[in-house]
Amino acid sequence: MKELLRYLLCGLAMGAADVVPGVSGGTIAFITGIYDQLLNGIKAFNMTFFRRFFTGRWKEAFADIPWRFLLPLLLGIGTSIFSLARLTLYLLHAWPEALWAFFFGLIISSILLMTRGQRMPVLNVLLLAVGAVAAWFITGAEAMTATHELPRIFIAGFIALCAMILPGISGSFMLVVMGQYAYLLSAVVQLNIPVLLTFIAGGLCGLMSFSRALSACFKRFPSQTNAVLIGFMVGSLRTVWPWHDGTMPALPPVMDGMVFLALLTCLCGIALPLAVQRIAVRMSQSS
């Protein structure tokens, strides 16, 4: 039961992160220690599964899926996304600097957790730098104006969910870049079923293909892959800095109460992953 509760809480945290552009659910999975399980759970939906499923051998098809892990995780993610969509829209309009400062602190703390105990030879440092530069330019991309036909929604789902499982690259931010974020968030609030099902279908295709490549990288080059992912997180700090001049981070225009509120929420963001990791470790040890 404690293990199921842990997965549910991880799902809630991942869903909350995935709603907001600039924050990755993959980061939450990484710092809570379920990242490998997440990749393996996605990989379980392989050709053998689909062959059994479409030939009517449903019991055999579902037998190899780690439902004990996936069901509470997906329940948490779905609950968090649907319950936080309205709140996120409100906070982004009413308290943008404070909200972005919170996520800035969240990513800073996550980077510290991910680098703890990591070996950093010269190659890994170079790979980290490459990841940081790539994420810096990706997150600095201007949002494009896009139409919302279902084929575009499918492609957006494919790209966004590939990004969503990468620590440091936000699936929501990729939706912003593709001009689909506000439209899809409204679809969640309004329960636009055709749009949501098309987005989910594209996302599932992306997840099942990309998770295999990512898992293979972790298996063959674990420390190097981890260095690139840490670099992605470092580069993604550009988009969650509370103040910008165009697309570039800038200093606050005035030192007012919002600056101090942003500092407070940033400190809360730094503290939260440390608390989440400590809780996750305790629950893992007691299960």
List the helices and strands and how they pair.
Blueprint: H1 2-19, H2 25-31, H3 35-43, H4 47-54, H5 58-63, H6 67-94, H7 96-115, H8 122-139, H9 150-164, H10 171-177, H11 181-190, H12 193-220, H13 222-240, E1 244-245, E2 248-249, H14 257-286
Keyphrases for this structure?
287 residues; mainly alpha; two-stranded antiparallel sheet; 2 strands; 78% helix; 1% strand
Describe the overall structure.
This protein has helices at 2-19, 25-31, 35-43, 47-54, 58-63, 67-94, 96-115, 122-139, 150-164, 171-177, 181-190, 193-220, 222-240, 257-286; strands at residues 244-245, 248-249. It is an all-alpha fold and 287 residues long. It has one domain (2-286). A two-stranded antiparallel sheet has the order 1-2. A hairpin with a 2-residue loop joins strand 1 (244-245) and strand 2. Helix 1 (2-19) runs parallel beside helix 6 (67-94), helix 7 runs antiparallel to helix 13 and helix 12 (193-220) packs across helix 13. The chain is globular. The mean pLDDT is 82.
